[in-house]
Design a protein that fits this description.
Layout (H helix, E strand, L loop, with lengths): L3 E9 L7 H19 L7 E5 L1 H10 L1 H12 L3 E4 L13 H19 L5 E3 L9 H7 L4 E5 H6 L11 E5 L2 E8 L1 H6 L5 H14 L4 E7 L9 H7 L2 H11 L4 E4 L1 H7 L14 H6 L3 H14 L5 H4 L11 H4 L1 H21 L2 H4 L2 H13 L17 H21 L7 E6 L8 E6 L2 E6 L5 E7 L4 E2 L12 H7 L40 E4 L6 H5 L14 E6 L3 E12 L2 E12 L5 E9 L7 E9 L9 E4 L5 E4 L4 E13 L4 E24 L2 E17 L7 E10 L1 H13 L2
Parallel strand pairs: 1-2, 1-8, 1-9, 2-3, 4-5, 5-7
Antiparallel strand pairs: 6-7, 10-11, 11-12, 12-13, 13-14, 15-20, 16-17, 17-18, 18-19, 19-26, 20-25, 21-22, 21-23, 23-24, 24-25, 24-26
Helix pairs in contact: 16-18, 16-19, 18-19
Length: 727
């Protein structure tokens, strides 16, 4: 008797850098209770993927779960799926790292569970056809994406109930279409809805295979699902329904389906992801337009046929939509290329263990979550961005050590580091790394502290998002309760703080450092905060650049002739790094051709990310050393020559010293963003703006020196203490 095979493929994942409490809550709410229920149904097998970042945490914190999972594997009830170790988007990393991560995780899983890993999970189901060759070269036989990919290749619904062969340069891969319909019925509708859908397929198809592939967190971690899935018994009712229909419905793993059912044919899939991801990748206005068009036509009589030809966006364009994502991507690629060069060198081959540690840090820095944004926080979560940079900085520093860099050193180089066809400038030393963009305002757009592994410029601009309209529409009527019923994460509307609609504001320039402002004289802090008063064209204007170098000192000299109001003026800023001053970055400003006798208002904006707000051990201090408030404080200080920021938890003290006293403004940069739990206000950076109002004398010149001192001695002392104590 023929059966319909139902494949249940679950994907459990927590990103690199997530909080221990989040890992523990997900384990308590989803991962452990799911296995507890599954254990009572030994005849129901599943395919399970656990990301390497999550499994590493589980191995360290919950060995009992690992042992229980091993027993499931030994009796054949759970098939372990592999994939790239730290859950990178395959399109976001070089081919060598795709293959390397998949092979490394396969080896890890086979050692941990004593099984043969044949299949894999594609992170976020982001697919490009050339991945086929990389996946097969890594030793994988089959995988699962979404039926949305297959519809994009021209297949109708009745041809989606099985699996297909695909190839790249003759290398064959078996690929399953995961059902979008089941992603919305499981677990959000009564189990009978799934049974009825499967029964219809069984009655109209020969030996069908229907695949469900989705997040394990929807079974307990997503808001409201723990009560629904476990307390209200949805999962047991679902499993009971599957058992009650065994005469025609057989629950199978991907491996069992491959071994017992022939492929439906051959297919080449277009570049795609799951449907929602393709929508999120669109620019904001186009995303709004797309949704309006879909809503306008989804009830048309021919929409069922038309929708498979409607396409949204492409994952790689997240790197365009969010320049901050591109900055991480380019830094990651730079480290990967450096590692590849070192690995091929004699010095690298003589240090395999150190090279392996650097590679592992690189791979951790490729975890996908902070590189994009959709229904989850992703890019908008500072702790996830900070984790990516930490691992990349640690890897970069390790590679410098492998190359024999010792003692105090400085270096300066110019290359197209951010892939904009313009050269950027990299100043580096044994203590820090800074990146300047002459073609974009001469901004300092990345500032890495090697000791604590922190990028103080992992900032994020405030920009329009499609869901901001939902915030505006619902803020006045939404209470802060959990609401009734269980809804998909994509339909959730919940506010973590009140009055978020009043916090919606958008930045008019990149929130980086060395952002040069010519402001209207007399401009107030409140007006500046609203983006008012700019009278110059230096914010993102192109600066000419030249480099100076010696063994002990490097300088980048950036010059621009532009306008302040109707006056043509010249700005030269020289950024210096010296071996004798350790963690000090000196910036010398020279303004020339100024209008004699006319008041001017000049400001230099700095932004400090990675240093959290809302905590008493993270604070501003003044010239006298006294605390001025937490790092989200709005300050307007008159006539001072010093301000500092301390993050005691990080062990970082950053201070600005001015050769000419002036005013200093501080402002928090806070985004309103969407996460699993709803809408929230997130602190992204503290803006610190020294500013001077003056009247140029007959020379038409004015100058100031700003010294940015970065003291990480507390972080380094803590690291040394941990090493000594064996932590």
């Amino acid at each position: 008797m023929s059966h319909l095979r139902l494949v249940l493929a679950l994907h459990n994942h927590q990103p690199v850098g997530n909080f221990d409490g989040v890992f523990e809550a997900a384990a308590a709410d989803s991962y452990r209770p799911f296995l507890e229920v599954l254990e009572d149904y030994p005849d129901l097998p599943i395919s399970l993927h656990t990301s390497g970042s999550l499994l590493e945490w589980i191995v360290e914190h919950d060995p009992e779960y690992v042992e229980r999972l091993r027993r499931f594997v030994e009796r054949g009830q759970i098939e372990i799926l592999g994939g790239p170790f730290f859950e990178p988007i395959l399109a976001c990393i070089p081919r060598r790292d795709r293959i390397g991560q998949i092979r490394a995780y396969t080896q890890f899983l086979e050692q941990a569970f004593g099984c043969h890993v044949r299949g894999m999970w594609v992170p976020e189901r982001v697919w490009e056809q050339t991945f086929t060759g990389d996946i097969t070269d890594a030793g994988i036989e089959y995988t699962i994406v979404d039926d949305f990919h297959f519809r994009g290749a021209g297949l109708s619904d009745e041809k989606l109930h099985g699996y297909y062969l695909t190839e790249d340069e003759g290398r064959l891969l078996k690929i399953f279409p995961g059902s979008e319909r089941l992603r919305y019925t499981i677990p959000f509708q009564d189990p009978q809805a799934t049974i009825d859908y499967l029964r219809h397929i069984y009655e109209t198809q020969a030996t069908p295979v229907v695949s469900f592939g989705d997040d394990g967190e929807k079974f307990g971690t997503w808001p409201g699902t723990k009560e629904h899935v476990y307390d209200d018994g949805w999962l047991r009712r679902f499993f009971d329904s599957l058992m009650a229909n065994q005469e025609w419905l057989k629950v199978a793993t991907l491996a069992e389906a491959v071994d017992n059912v022939a492929p439906l044919g051959r297919i080449y899939l277009p570049d795609s992801s799951y449907r929602e991801m393709t929508e999120w990748a669109l620019p904001t206005q186009q995303q709004v337009t797309y949704h309006h068009l879909v809503h306008a036509h989804e009830h048309d009589h021919d929409w069922g046929e038309l929708r498979q030809f409607v396409r949204a966006g492409f994952w790689r364009n997240f790197l365009v939509k969010y320049p901050e994502s591109n900055e991480m991507y380019c830094r990651m690629r730079e480290v990967s290329e450096k590692l590849d060069r070192v690995a091929g060198s004699e010095v690298g081959r003589l240090q395999p263990e150190r090279l392996h540690r650097a590679q592992t840090e690189l791979h951790r820095g490729q975890c996908n979550c902070p590189y994009w944004h959709g229904a989850f926080g992703g890019l908008y979560l500072p702790h996830l961005r900070n984790a990516i940079y930490k691992h990349l900085i640690v890897a970069d520093t390790a590679l410098e050590a492998i190359n024999g860099r010792e003692g105090k050193w400085v270096e300066i180089e110019a290359e197209d580091f951010n892939l904009d066809a313009r050269k950027e400038i990299r100043l580096s030393s044994d203590r820090l790394v800074g990146y300047l963009a002459p073609a974009r305002g001469g901004h300092l757009y990345e500032l890495d502290l090697r000791g604590p592994g922190v990028n103080l410029l992992a900032t994020l601009n405030r920009r329009p998002e499609p869901y901001h309209q939902k915030v505006r529409d619902h803020a006045a009527h939404q209470d802060n309760g959990d609401g009734g019923g269980t809804v998909s994460i994509h339909d959730l509307v919940h506010f973590k703080q009140p009055d978020l609609d009043q916090k919606l504001t958008y930045d008019r320039w990149p929130r980086k450092s060395l952002v040069d402002h010519f402001l209207r004289p007399g401009l107030t802090l409140e007006e500046f905060d609203q983006g008012e008063g700019e009278i110059g064209d230096f914010l993102t204007g192109v600066y000419d650049s030249r480099l100076r170098r010696s063994d002990r000192r490097v300088e980048a000299v950036l010059t621009r002739v532009g306008h302040a109001d109707e006056h043509a003026v010249s700005v030269t800023k020289t950024v210096s790094l010296d071996t004798s001053t350790g963690g000090l970055l000196q910036v010398d400003y020279l303004l020339e051709n100024l209008p004699v006798g006319q008041p001017l208002h000049f400001a230099v904006e700095f932004n400090f990310a990675s240093m959290a707000a809302g905590a008493d051990d993270r604070y501003f201090y003044g010239a006298d050393g006294g605390q001025l408030g937490q790092l989200q404080s709005v300050l307007g200080i008159d006539e001072t020559d010093r301000i500092g920021l301390v993050d005691e938890w990080l062990g970082v003290d950053a201070s600005l010293d001015l050769s000419t006293a002036g005013g200093i403004w501080t402002l928090p940069v806070q985004t309103v963003s969407q996460s699993e739990g709803g809408f929230e206000l997130v602190h992204q950076s503290a803006a610190v703006i020294p500013h001077w109002e003056f009247t140029p004398d007959e020379s038409g010149r004015w100058s100031v020196t700003i010294k940015l001192t970065l003291d990480t001695s507390a972080a380094q002392a803590r690291q040394l203490s941990n090493v000594v104590s064996g932590v």
